[in-house]
Write a structure and sequence with these properties.
The complex is a heterodimer of chains A (343) and B (125). Chain A is α/β, with parallel strands linked by helices and 343 residues long. Chain A contains 16 helices and eight strands. Chain A has an eight-stranded parallel beta sheet. In chain B, the strands form three sheets. A five-stranded antiparallel beta sheet of chain B has the order 1-2-9-6-7, with no helix packed on it. A four-stranded antiparallel beta sheet of chain B has the order 5-4-10-11, with no helix packed on it. A two-stranded antiparallel ribbon of chain B has the order 3-8. In chain B, a hairpin with a 2-residue loop joins strand 6 and strand 7. The chains are: A alpha/beta (343), B mainly beta (125). The interface between A and B is medium-sized, with 34 and 26 residues.
């Protein structure tokens, strides 16, 4: 019998990018609404999205955030930080500068009340390794987001796996993003390309077919798509817009999350849409992504992450509420079915 | 959807010998000014040279050419950046056709490059 899992639901404020960008909700409003709608208790944020004084968050801004989180009955779970190596396009900063840049963000994370940062693979294993002493002094865990177009067998991710094996720090680990193990291109994106950008159906068919071609790597799929469009005389801007699908959603096998299970620090339930009947995302098989973690009795926080703002002006709150209903059925089917009167 | 909101609606203003308009950063997070490029601004079909433009953000007004060196100053994503172009006899109440092209290079991804075009006919305040 599998050990009982301890997966706690939450949300990333990234899901509410539309509301924040539209200035209908400020940060305090987003946090309060998250609590009011019961979308926590876990609350994740992106440093450079939510905090004006990032990467060096002031005590005043940190205090306001902590107070708002507490008042809403939420818990700060994870803060997204960035690996800004190219502060001038085409010119890389040194590893030493990038270590210092991460250190500023990690200290800000601590001031804000987070004990986990989500870092980007562009940091490099050498930079993250150099930050372990700081992580220890801050008691701060550091999770590499495994995000499309990379998956577990990509050389970049393998480099981190090797470094983690060498360092053996419990503070280092992974944050699987379920969008790295998707089953289809989101139809909401296809509809956006067709209806808002005027993409011809033949172009969309080509892009979709290539996305499913497992004989090609993601960069090769993108290159093949660019070649096809060049031959067909397609507007380069449209080609660039559609090429998004090769970068932000991947074809990984969700069963393979079990390979890194002991080092998983946090989960990202990325999604784009919810079926009105089942609340299931047609593009990302959330059940298949979650199954290895349920089976292993994994303990930790899961953030719902709606990325529909790329193609829609819709409400992140409505989408997250729908996905969490679906997740509750996956995580606790007996209780949920009893509550629904369907036992 | 952020890609279709480059020009902040109803932000055209007649200034002394200039017109100004507001821009939004069409991205999910703040970015350092050093990775932002204003590739072009035209008003009523007249292309304005970039070296004659200024921008106002974070409480300061500076020449557009200063942006490339501002690696430590950010455009917060809910802020409106105002850009101003020299213009003879700007007329409050008159409508102008404005077209802006903007590019940005998120600093955490070497090859990532996004661009946006905003077009709006606005009446100057």
């Amino acid at each position: 019998m599998s050990p009982a899992h301890g997966i706690r639901l939450g949300v990333s404020l990234y899901s509410f990018t539309n509301e924040f960008f539209a200035r209908s909700h400020d940060l305090k409003d987003l946090i309060a609404e998250t609590g009011r709608l019961g979308l926590g208790p876990g609350l994740e944020a992106v440093g450079f999205q939510s905090f004006r004084s990032f990467p060096d968050v002031t005590d005043a801004e940190a205090g306001q955030f902590r107070d708002a989180v507490q008042a809403a009955g939420l818990t700060a779970t994870c803060l997204g930080i960035t690996a800004d190596r190219f502060l001038r396009p085409g010119q890389a900063v040194s590893d030493e500068e990038l270590v210092a840049f991460h250190a500023r963000q990690m200290r800000s994370a601590r001031r804000l009340g987070f004990s986990l940062v989500r870092f980007q693979h562009a940091a490099t294993p050498a930079v993250i390794r150099a930050l372990v002493p700081l992580a220890e002094s801050l008691d701060m865990r550091m999770g590499l987001e495994v995000h499309a177009p990379l998956f577990l067998d990509h050389p970049v991710i393998e480099g981190y796996r090797e470094m983690f094996e060498q360092v053996k720090s419990p503070l280092l680990g992974f944050i699987p993003d379920f969008g790295a193990a998707a089953r289809a291109v989101p139809q909401v994106q296809i509809a956006h390309f067709r209806e808002d950008l005027g993409a011809p159906q033949a172009v969309l068919d080509c892009a979709t077919e290539l996305w499913h071609d497992d004989a090609l790597t993601p960069p090769d799929r993108m290159a093949a798509f660019a070649d096809w469009c060049a031959d067909a005389g397609i507007d380069p801007q449209l080609v660039s817009d559609i090429s998004l699908i090769f970068g932000i959603i991947g074809r990984g096998n969700p069963a393979r999350w079990s390979e890194i299970m002991p080092q998983v620090l946090h989960l990202h339930a990325k999604f784009y849409d919810c079926d009105p009947e089942t609340q299931e995302d047609p593009a990302i098989d959330t059940a298949a992504n979650l199954a290895p973690f349920i089976a292993a009795g994994w303990q930790g926080d899961l953030s719902c992450e709606w990325e529909g703002h790329i193609t829609s002006h819709g409400s992140g709150f409505e989408m997250v509420a729908a996905q969490q209903g679906y997740l509750r059925r996956l995580l606790d089917p007996d209780t949920t079915l009893a509550q629904d009167g369907r036992t | 959807m952020l890609a279709d909101v480059l020009i902040d609606p109803d932000t055209l203003k007649a200034r002394p010998n200039a017109l100004s308009l507001g821009l939004r950063l069409p991205w999910y997070q703040s970015l350092p000014l050093s990775v932002i490029r204003i590739d072009g601004l035209s008003i009523d079909g007249v292309e304005i040279d970039a070296d004659r433009l200024s921008f106002s953000l974070n409480g300061r007004t500076r020449p557009l050419g200063d942006m490339a060196d501002l690696t430590g100053e950010y455009w917060f994503l809910t802020d409106t950046m105002e850009i101003a172009a020299p213009w003879s006899d700007p007329a409050p109440g008159r409508a102008y056709e404005c077209v802006v092209r903007l590019s940005f290079f998120p600093p955490y991804a070497e090859t990532l490059h996004r661009s946006a075009i905003g077009q709006s006919r606005m009446r100057a305040a």
